[in-house]
Automatic annotation (TrEMBL):
Protein name: Beta-galactosidase
The enzyme's E.C. designation: 3.2.1.23
Family: Belongs to the glycosyl hydrolase 42 family.
Occurrences of domain Beta-galactosidase trimerisation (ranges): 408-607
Short name of one Pfam family: Glyco_hydro_42
Organism of this sequence: Paraglaciecola mesophila
This protein's record includes keyword Nucleotide-binding: no
Catalysed reactions, as listed in the record: Hydrolysis of terminal non-reducing beta-D-galactose residues in beta-D-galactosides
InterPro entries in alphabetical order: Beta_galactosidase_Trimer, Class_I_gatase-like, GH, Glyco_hydro_42, Glyco_hydro_42_N
Enzyme class: hydrolase
Entry keywords, A to Z: Glycosidase, Hydrolase, Metal-binding, Zinc
Keyword Metal-binding: yes
Amino acid sequence: MVATSNNVLALGVCDYPEHVPASEWKNHAEQQKTLGLQYVRLAEFSWAKIEPSDGIYDWQWLDDAIATYVAQGLKIVMCTPTATPPAWLIQKYPEILAVDAQGQTMKFGSRRHYDHASDIYRQECKRITTLMAQRYGQHADVIGWQTDNELGHEGTAVSYGGASAERFPKWLETRYETLEALNEAWGCAFWSQDYSQWQQICPPNLTAVRQPNPSQALDYQRFCSDMIEEFQQVQIDVLRALSPNRFLTHNFVIFAQEFDLYKVAKNLDFVAWDSYPIGMLEFFATWESEQTKSEFARTGHPDLVSFNHDLYRGIKGGKDFWIMEQQCGHANWAQYNPLPAKGAVQLWTAQAWAHGASSVTYFRWRASHMAQEIMHSGLLQQDGRADRGYQEVKDFDTSQFVLEKVNARVALLHDYNSLWAYNLQPHNKDLNYWHQFMMFYSALRELGVDVDIIHPEQLADKEYALVVAPALTVVTPEIASYLTQCAKNCPIIFGPRTAFRNDSGRVADKGQFQLIEDLVGIKLANFDSLRPTLSQSVEQTETSTEFSAKLWCESYELTGANATHTYLNGPMAGVAAVTNKGNVSVIGALSGSLIKSILKAALGEVGIETFTLPKGMRLSRRGDITLVLNFNLHDVEWEGTTYPGVSFSTLN
Ligand code: GAL
């Protein structure tokens, strides 16, 4: 079902025929064909063009545009246009608008201004999706569908009023059945928060002082995630019925964290995501230096990009994914939007393939003359001349990029309950879930190791040589049993805050590790949230090697494990910082070099080769090919070979 006819990487482009005169379409389609593109993604923001007013339709322009692409042999990826409900629809049903955390109702004039819980909006989406699917669902050249566009992105996953506020108490009643159970789960004894009627419960915004109850906020996040899942399912059901044998996918975003991707992607055929490597540098905001951001300002940082590839490969258990929007020039939405370096578009395309992409679609064909994205680039400039990315795409030879498996032997465990619970109470201004996770991910990538990112449940289906759980702070009895089973024959390394909370976000009666204490053989002694200027020295007992930890340190009391590292100074001096019991180690101190040294030793023990790679240089393997990717602007000498700046090559 994936549109790659000859088992090699396929290329496509996002195009907006509705933005240019119809007289340009033929020329555009001919150029797209010349570039070697195989398909065009269409129509994700086209509702008002298709239905300019209530019940009045204009399909002709889209019929003609499709015919123009098809005449050149291009295939079509069609989108449902539900990310942009038109002005007439908002005027008719203002209640579908979302409400922000300040209690303000969103206004019309941008996109994704709807509340996913709204039944009225779901019905409207069903109606327009049905009409589109009836018209194009069996078109011979429509190969698949994208639902909506970047669900929940830019803070639109959550609405704090309207339909969401109405449905939340009902959702809670289904989850907890009794108010006693809810009051207990949320710890409502604290600050007299007990509820005596379901209807008293509100979304967790505008609470008077400080933060809302974190367990309530955690459930609200889950509720909003479920609303998105249901919202999309309405479209999936229509498309499955009316457009059989076409793929269904969705274009998710960089470091998606607004909803549970494992659930939202469950009924899609494969996942796609939108890759903007340069804008992605903003995700380093709190933890990387301006120096690093400058060094990678024109290529993006290899680990930020590859992390998202690995995340999306793992969402459906190792299936190939698509890049539905690939940056191919400057973007417009980041704080700074430098031009990509020459060669970057090819480098990103090759990297996507190496991490499991079967298709890369460039965003967008021709730069927009109008509205919010005037400052964004395309493969063509606004006046129609080829822009910098055009030639790179033309010169990119896909024939060597065969769609083999990515066979990683190391898994990183990731889940959304841990992400949400961590980020609701980070307890240190400079820390968040991704930051901690990336310290472990980057250490592995710096060692030249390929990794899968998976949900702990997936441990039941696949065996690994090493499992790492960087920030698994919510551990349920089910997760505890997957971990226990896995540790029988595979080493596991945990990061700080492991098993600190249960499913409702509370700490268990017996504190951290309660559900896995036999496994780890420790209890928490103390945790320590450090100011940026503070650090803790950690010593490896056996070799007396010292490491410097920052931001977060935990110390442990031993109940069966050994201490391999202890704190040398500060309030936790002399207490365990890293422990080991059989196959299981726990790292309590955040230090990049400490994490790397422990991972390196563990990889050595399970026979996985590690490398010392120069900064900005990475290895990635797919099938029998190992790519060397150089994200630096300058040439790099490594193991007797010179690798040109901004390049990829095959390691012999
Ligand atoms: C994506 C979005 C596109 C466009 C693009 C600009 O997030 O899906 O519609 O806005 O960003 O970079």
